[in-house]
UniProtKB/TrEMBL annotation:
<dbReference type="GO" id="GO:0032259">
    <property type="term" value="P:methylation"/>
</dbReference>
<dbReference type="Pfam" id="PF01555">
    <property type="entry name" value="N6_N4_Mtase"/>
</dbReference>
<feature type="domain" description="DNA methylase N-4/N-6">
    <location>
        <begin position="76"/>
        <end position="170"/>
    </location>
</feature>
<dbReference type="GO" id="GO:0005737">
    <property type="term" value="C:cytoplasm"/>
</dbReference>
<dbReference type="GO" id="GO:0009007">
    <property type="term" value="F:site-specific DNA-methyltransferase (adenine-specific) activity"/>
</dbReference>
<keyword id="KW-0175">Coiled coil</keyword>
<dbReference type="InterPro" id="IPR029063">
    <property type="entry name" value="SAM-dependent_MTases_sf"/>
</dbReference>
<protein>
    <submittedName>
        <fullName>Modification methylase MjaII</fullName>
        <ecNumber>2.1.1.113</ecNumber>
    </submittedName>
</protein>
<keyword id="KW-0808">Transferase</keyword>
<keyword id="KW-0489">Methyltransferase</keyword>
<dbReference type="InterPro" id="IPR002941">
    <property type="entry name" value="DNA_methylase_N4/N6"/>
</dbReference>
<dbReference type="GO" id="GO:0003677">
    <property type="term" value="F:DNA binding"/>
</dbReference>
<dbReference type="GO" id="GO:0015667">
    <property type="term" value="F:site-specific DNA-methyltransferase (cytosine-N4-specific) activity"/>
</dbReference>
<dbReference type="GO" id="GO:0008170">
    <property type="term" value="F:N-methyltransferase activity"/>
</dbReference>
<feature type="coiled-coil region">
    <location>
        <begin position="179"/>
        <end position="206"/>
    </location>
</feature>
Length: 538
């Protein structure tokens, strides 16, 4: 059999023009020095980025067109990269696949603002290189993350045999972190999931929603096949042969009467009666009924750990069932209660009427991820405390939870900090999980968040941010070894960290700059730089 390398060389040297997706993936992997899969190539064909010269069963693409496609993105990135001359390209971690960046428990629940595990690993592990010239943390040390978020530091510390304590002001974030890091009895979770899945399936069948959705899906699929044939339609838009908006609006007008006929036939209630709370406004009535049903069942679970894991699964499910369009998932605009033309998929899509599909997907995914982590975890101690890092007494809290570990901690103290603080006016960390707070009635402490989005980026907000982060560092100092090392990841565009360090009685000894390739859509990336400030006692 021809070797992989040989096939790539053949493609390059013999100037073969039309290649299969498999050959294209190999060629592109070699050309870009990064892993490109057959499904990446299939995506480009499907969405009309590349013309298909073969038949649908046997697609073929033009290698020169593929090269032009990738070159256009590379040029854009290189132009931007010349702005960042002092950047450490090594820290982009762009060679890691999406699945490695979200490995095992790192993707148990969405969380806006988390850092990638490889970055944490780089600073916590025992390697050195031309940029990282010292080893800062070693096995059995204890690391602190006062802005723990979804627990990336805790999980990576565990992988490396390092103990860790995290703190987060948001109860739900602490819950995500602790579920990731805890040792679970997975078989118990599995049994409970099976029971709940049967219950929700019965509930759904009795409510006519599944019959309604089946018929709607059939009609939609016939309609889309006829009026929005997959790659042909996308190519026609790219070549400006049809006016996408006008055409889509006209077709949608044709489909909506059919939709409302089915809604009447099955007596489906679309909107809820109120829209005061997030959970009243952002879900179809049918979805809300299922949420209420499942929430009650989950709250009845006796085993606390099983209950917590299932709360996370239900939250993740609920989040994926918000009544919105596929393109507005990240930034909600207005709730959507009827089918709409979806630019992302180039066809008519519909909002979600039942939680069942996502529930099943996420239950399977969670069990798989917990099992993966179970295989590699070390026997070290990690926990996330819920509290305000400006004032929390870490030793006292740990004493109540694990007196043995508290003894070790009080004697040894934290070796240092690895953390990514919130930035000024960027994200509301409670609000991003409003549905979970409302569903389970967790207490919110929004007023203690440092730098929330709702306070903006004005002068007052910046001053309060500087004071807030400096107060956290001063409070944490009480629990650190004398010769501590602190690493803070921040995209400090307002240059606030020199002032923060000064107020905290610290100095910035080094600033590592890493490029961040931000995915704005599936195949477009923008570039900015983020700093990792290394601080020590003044
Ligand atoms: C950038 S995120 C951290 C993300 C984390 N590195 C991860 O990978 O998931 C910052 C976190 O700081 C938390 N936070 C904000 N103010 C806080 C405070 N006063 N005390 C403790 N945590 C706070 C927010 O709730 C948020 O989860």
């Amino acid at each position: 059999m021809e070797s992989y390398k040989q096939q790539v060389l053949d493609i390059i040297e013999q100037n073969i023009k039309l290649i299969t997706p498999k050959e294209a993936a190999r060629w592109a992997t070699e050309y870009l020095k990064k892993n490109i899969t057959v499904s990446n190539i299939a995506y480009l064909i499907q969405y009309g980025r590349l013309k298909n010269y073969g038949s649908n069963g046997n697609p073929l693409i033009d290698k020169d067109e593929l090269k032009d496609y990738y070159d256009s993105f590379r040029n854009e990135l290189y132009q931007k990269s010349s702005i960042f001359k002092d950047i450490n390209w090594h820290l982009s971690f762009s060679e890691y696949k999406e699945s490695e960046r979200t490995k095992h428990v790192h993707r148990l629940h969405p969380y806006k603002g988390k850092f990638i595990p490889q970055l944490v690993e780089y600073f916590l592990d025992s390697h050195t290189d031309e940029f990282k010239k010292e080893v800062y943390f070693k096995k059995d040390d204890i690391v602190l993350d006062p802005f723990c978020g979804s627990g990336t530091t805790l999980v990576q510390a565990n992988e490396l045999g390092i103990h860790a304590v995290g703190i987060d002001v948001s109860y739900f974030n602490s819950l995500i972190s602790n579920i990731k890091i805890k040792k679970h009895e997975i078989s118990k979770i599995y049994n409970e999931i099976k029971r709940l899945t049967d219950e929700i399936e019965d509930f759904n069948k009795n409510s006519k929603v599944s019959s309604f959705e089946n018929e709607l899906n059939e009609e939609l699929s016939k309609f889309n096949n006829k009026y929005f044939p997959f790659s042909d339609f996308k190519i026609a838009i790219r070549n400006k042969e049809i006016d996408e908006n006008k055409y889509a609006n006209e077709r949608l007008k044709d489909f909506l009467p059919l939709y409302y006929k089915l809604v009447n036939k099955y007596s489906i209630k679309l909107k809820q009666d109120r829209e005061d709370a997030f959970i009243d406004k952002w879900f179809l009535s049918t979805v809300r009924d299922e949420i209420e049903f499942m929430k009650e069942k989950v709250l009845e679970i006796n085993d606390k750990d099983v209950k917590n894991v299932i709360m996370i699964i239900l939250s993740r499910t609920v989040r994926s069932c918000r009544a919105t369009t596929h393109s507005d998932l990240a930034t909600l605009k207005e709730p959507v209660f009827e089918p709409y033309y979806c630019k992302k998929h180039g066809k008519i899509c519909k909002p979600i009427f039942s939680i069942i599909n996502w529930w099943k997907t996420y239950t399977v995914d969670t069990i798989k991820r917990l099992r993966e982590f179970e295989k590699i975890r070390t026997d070290t101690f990690q926990i996330c405390l819920t509290g305000d890092s400006k004032a929390i007494d870490i030793f006292e809290q740990i004493k109540n939870i694990n007196p043995d570990f508290a003894n070790i901690l009080i004697n040894k103290k934290f070796r240092g900090i690895f953390s990514s603080p919130p930035y000024v006016g960027l994200i509301d960390y409670h609000e991003q999980h409003a549905y979970a707070y409302e569903m389970f009635g967790f207490e919110r402490r929004d007023e203690l968040e440092i730098g929330p989005l709702y306070k903006g980026q004005g002068e007052e907000a910046k001053m309060s941010y500087i004071k807030g982060i400096a107060d956290v560092l001063k409070n944490c100092k009480r629990f650190l070894q004398k010769n501590y090392d602190i690493f803070l990841v921040a995209n400090d565009k307002f240059n606030l960290y020199p002032k923060i360090a000064e107020l905290a009685g610290m100095r910035i000894v080094e600033e590592f700059k890493r490029p961040v390739l931000n995915r704005v859509e599936k195949n477009r990336e923008t570039l900015y730089s983020e700093s990792i400030f290394h601080l020590k006692e003044k």
